[in-house]
Structure formats: structure tokens, C-alpha cells
Amino acid sequence: MLRIISLVSLLMSTPLLFMSARYNYSYYGRVIHSSPGMTYVAYYNSATMGVPLQSPEDMTVFEDKVYVIDSQTHALTILDHDFSVLHHEHTFTFAPSLDKAAAGVEPEDEELTLFRPRGLDVRDSGIYICDTANHRIVKLDHDLRVVGVFHDIEDPTFETISFEPMKITVDSSERMYVVARNVYEGIVELGSEGEFNRFTGVNPLTPNPLEILRRSFMTEEQLAQLTLFLPTEYTNVHIDHRSFIYATSRPTGAAAENMIQLINPKGIDILVRNGYHPPMGDVHFIVGQNNYVVTGPSRLVSIVSTDHGIYTVLDQRRSRLFTYDAQGNLLYINGDEGAQSDRFSEGVAIAYFGDDILVLDRGTRTIVHYRPSEFGRAVNQAIAHQEVGEFEEASALWEDVLMMNSNYETAYNGLGRYHLRAGNYQEAMEYFRLGHDHYYYSKAFQLHRNNIIKDNFALIGAAALIVSGVFIGMKVRKTLKQGGTILYED
Amino acid sequence: MKTRLSRVWHHMFVFPKYLIFHPFDGFDEFKRYRKGKMWVALVYVALFAFYRIMAYQYESFLINPNDPLALNSLQEIFAVILLVMLFSVGNWSMTTLMEGKGSFREILKVTGYALFPLVLIGFIGLMLSNFLTLEEMGFYRLLLFIGYIASGWVLFMGILNIHEYGLFKTLMAFLLTFVAMGVMMFIGLLFFDLIQQFIAFIVAIYEELSLR
């Protein structure tokens, strides 16, 4: 009886198990089942932490401590590595070194408070907070004393609109990269003292000829009614150890392909897009009005990178995490929309906590903690080995990955790379065919073909001689038969 | 037996080849002495459809973006027949008005014969593509390009000769043929859409009545 009940309940819960996002996109763009790359560990909210969390906006991890900023309580919360509260601060004292006049604070003020902060970043040089509604960036040292307030940005852009910093990231030389509201010029780059340097990651607009033609027929009134054709609006930035900026932006019309960018110090997007599909969150989505499913491209709101060029983006629209490797291969998709403890409904920020991922959910005011599954760990390790050229170690891990998920096409390419190095060109070709890697298939095929030609050169040469001999012989026979001569005659 | 085989060889290969390199003489014989055979034209249309199916499946892995699970042979065959019929009917309807001397049968035959270089080069290229690396695929593309050019050449010269047109009139005829093909496709789509709506209407009425 118990067996029957457990069997029935298992059968009834099966659809629930399949509901969570355990899929990937195949080379041909089909949605295929995949093993989950991350599994749920725990959640942390006001109840577990003991401090109020009303509208958390941003989160970052620095030296195993979790920093959370809240736009309703206007507080900075710092959690220890076991997620107990270390600090929960509303007010910050000034460091003696701070020049209050230059910082734009009243001289008699003893403490500084935040107002609706939306973003933060923590580095060796200090804690940087986007004090959004106060139109300034506040820099704290690690004793939580104010060491800098940057409020007056010297650029013509901010003569017409107020400076509202939303997200911030800081590089090793203390340059600040700020995403500000209503700024379409790009990411604001500030020097270490808050002076304006430039806009970076600017995307010049190239309207297509059809659009120009269409617009040339329109009157002023019609043009005014058109939706503004605006360049990329960034949603989040994250700097990696090489001082390259990972940035996410809103999809602009049909161009959902460059929603994720990797901006080098020159301001150019250098993200590698060698995967089956460009990194853009969900590849397939329904466009247009629909009452039953969520429509439109992914709305990416946060991006973080970890070792070996692996990076993860957060899709707020469908509450999913997409993890890519440095080559742009989609490694795994995690997370799902929902109110259960392992799901989230309005993700705003993600952070790597060692190998784990923390997701900050504004909807349920929770931090959800995910850890790589056995499958995810094997994939990560295999990529780590492959990045440094240890193909043999990687191949063993890829074998494990394929045991767990034979749908995983990237793993076949990893095995192909190993066999190509080892000189097993035929096996390499077979694996590259399964993994649809045309470039390396071509390399393996060329080497395989060379081997065949080398081994059979005598045979091939003989065949060529015989064939040409037969042709010449037939021609000679025909000429002689018709009474001609094969000798040169004048 | 031998003579029959050599006759087939002559009709299938020697004469179409002659048409490529001697278009005026060739199409003169084609029309006046009825050397163009309908069965040859139809065989080449069929071979072209066969080539399209084969290319979908067996073109070199390196440049083949097609999903093998999405191959639909009937659809490929239908596409080829539709294209050939659209062109023939479009050209016939236009050249009839433009005092062309060719009949519908002749137009259909020219269209079939025009596929000869494409089918020949296409199958050779298909085999060759599987022995090339990614860098060498330029040769395959060049070969296919030559095939298309040759096919276009035979089609153009064929239409020019069987209608006894000059150069500019032929160009004009082609332009109008494409317009006619577009119009026919539009009317076809319109027709199917209306029929579909009409059938849906009938079905709706039937359901209304049967569910009462």
C-alpha cells in the first residue's frame, strides 16, 4: 500500500520536477533537456538574518563577505561567510581626511545617510555606493567611514539631466564605471577622485536604409510620435581582474544579440561569440501579445564573471541564470520563476560566492543560494583545464559530463580537442561532428586527409598514371583508326 | 541495345552540352528539327529535385547548416516543380502577348534543359565538397557559381531562340516573366487564404448546427 502511494505521488510530482528550467539549446536551436548545473542550497531573508530587508537592490561579494544595499531602509548590510549579520548601517561617520566642502556636505554634519541607494561595488580600495536619490557616489573605507563623496560630474550631459547613478564597478586603479539613469552615451567613467574621464562602451547607431527612407516621408508630427530610436541602455556592469568590463543592456528592437558585451579598455566590445548562438539569454521566445507565456527577449539585469572567463547573467523576465564560458558556449541554465524557496521572482543581482552563486530577489526579499551540481562542477573543471591547455584532464571530465548528460554538445567538442591533440584525427572528426565545431573539424579532417595521402602516395600516383595513360592510349587509337598519324607533321 | 544506350547518351548529355557551347545552332535544331525532347527535360527537372534533396543531406558537414531532422523531400520536390511551372506559365503568358514564336511545350523543354549544367556540376560539387577543408570551400562555391551561370546562360539563350527575339526583347520578356510569377504567387496565396477562411466558415456553421 505504501509502495503504491509513494509511486502515485512520485508520478504526480514528475511534472513539477520537469517544470524547472533544465534545458539547453542545441546547435539547431532546439530546446533539449539538460542536467541542472546548479542546485539549491539555502535562502537567507530578514527572518534568518534578523535585520529588515525591504527592497534590496544590489549585492556583491568581497573576501567571503556579502554586501547588500537596500533602497527602502537606506541601509548597507554586510553578512559574514556564514550569512550572519556583521554590520547593518544607516549612517556613516566621516573620515578626518575628508574635505567636506569639496564633498558637498554641510560642515556641521557629523554623519552621512543614504537615500534610495541602488548599486554598490566593493574592492580593496573601499566600498562604493550609488546613492541614487542624492545624485552622488559615496566611497567608504573598510571601517565604514566616508572617505569620498562624488556628486558633481563635469560633463555637458549632466547640465540638462541630473546624475542618477544606478550601478557601479571599480577597476584596480580605482577608476569608477557607472551606469546612470537616462544616459545613453554609454558607461560613465570617473577617475579615482571622481573627475569625469569619458563615456565608454558607446554604441554608435547605424539606422538601416529602409528606416531612413521611411523617415524621409514623415512629417515633423509623425516623427515626434515615433518611439525614440535610442542606443544601448546599459543595465549593469561588472569588471573582471583584467579590467575588462562585462556589461548587460536592454534589448534594442531586434538586436538582442549584443545585450551582453565585454568592453576592453579602448571601449570596444570584444565578447567572443563562438557558441551555437550568441550569448543573449533565451534564444527562443514568443514575440508579441500573448496571455499565456512571458513574451520578448530576456531582460538581463546583472552579470558576474568568475575564473577562466566563465560568466553568468541574470534574466529578470523569466527568472533564469545563464552561464557561459569564455568562448560564448551556453553551459547551463538555472533558476525558475516562483515563490518556492529554491526559486525567485524578481532577481536584481547575482554574485559568485566561491563557486556558488547567490541571487538577490527583490520580489521575495531573499538571497537564494545555489551550488554547482556534480554535473556543473564537472563542466566548470573541464573548462578550467581546457583554458590552460590540459586537454587530457579535461577529456576525462568531459566523459563524466557525457555520462550525466549525453545531450551536452559542448562536451563532444572538448573530447574532440583532446583527440586532435593526441593525433587520433578520425576520433576527433567524429566528436567535432557531434559537437558541430566546423573549425576544428576542418583542422582534424585536413590532418586526416594528409595522413591518408602520405600512406597511399604510391597507389595514388600509380592510379593517376594509369588513368592518364589509358586516356592517351584511347586518343592515339582513335587517331590511328581514322588514318591519322600521331607524329608531328607539317 | 548499344544503339539505344548511345541514343540516350546523346539526348541526355551530348545535345545539352552542345546547347551550352553552340546556343544558336543548338536551339535552332532544338526547335526546328524537334531535337529537344520532353522526356529529357522532365528527367532533368526530376534530377534537379533529387539534387536538392541530396545536397540538403550530404553537402559537406563543414558548410551544411541544415537540420537533418527538418528534411522534407516532398517539400523540396514540390518547390522545384512549383518553380519550373511558375516560370514556364509566366513566360508563356508574357511571350504570347509579346509575339513570341515558342509554344508552352518548348518553354517547358528549355527550362528543363537549362537545369542540365546545374545538375551535372551540382552532383560533382556535392561529391567534391566532402573532400575539402573549410579553407578550400571557395573552390566548391566557385564551381556552384559556374553551374548557376551556365544554367542561366542556357535558359536565356533558349528563351531568346525559341521565341526568335532580340537581346533587349529577351531581357524585357524575363523581367515581365518575373513580374508575372510574382502576380501568380500573390493570387495563389490570396486564393488559398480565402479558401481557408471559407472552409473555416463552413466548419463553424456545421459546428453551430451540430451542437444545437
Short description:
Chain A has 490 residues and is an alpha+beta fold.
The major sheet of chain B is characterized as:
none
Any guess at the CATH architecture of the largest domain in chain A?
6 Propeller
**Distance separating the two termini of chain B:** 71 Å
Number of helical segments with 4 or more residues of chain A: 12
Number of helices of chain B: 8
Helix content of chain A: 25-40%
Low-pLDDT segments, ≥5 res of chain B: none
**Using only CA atoms, what is the Rg of chain A?**
30 Å
Find the count of extended strands of chain B (DSSP E, 2+ residues). Answer: 0
* Helix and strand composition category of chain A: alpha+beta
CATH topology of the largest domain in chain A: the name is Neuraminidase
Helix share bin of chain B? over 70%
Strand content of chain B: under 5%
Spatial strand order of the main sheet of chain A = 3-27-26-25
Order of helices and strands of chain B: HHHHHHHH
Average pLDDT of chain B, to the nearest integer?
Answer: 94
Largest interface, counted with CB-CB under 8 A? Answer: A-B, 11 and 10 residues
CATH superfamily of the largest domain in chain A: TolB, C-terminal domain
Question: How much β-strand is present in the residues of chain A?
Answer: 25-35%
Question: Can you put this structure into words, describing what you see?
Answer:
The complex is a heterodimer of chains A (490) and B (212). Chain A has helices at residues 2-19, 46-49, 100-103, 157-160, 209-216, 220-225, 374-387, 391-404, 409-422, 425-435, 438-455, 457-481; strands spanning 23-25, 31-33, 38-45, 56-62, 65-70, 76-79, 85-89, 91-93, 111-113, 119-123, 126-131, 136-140, 146-150, 165-170, 176-180, 187-190, 196-200, 234-239, 245-249, 260-263, 300-305, 311-315, 320-324, 330-334, 347-353, 356-361, 366-372. Chain A is an alpha+beta fold and 490 residues long. Chain A has 2 domains: 34-204 and 217-372, TolB, C-terminal domain (Neuraminidase, 6 Propeller); 393-455, no CATH class. With 212 residues, chain B is mainly alpha-helical. Chain B has one domain (2-186). In chain B, α1 packs across α2, α4 packs across α5 (104-114) and α4 packs across α8. Chain B is globular and about 70 Å long.
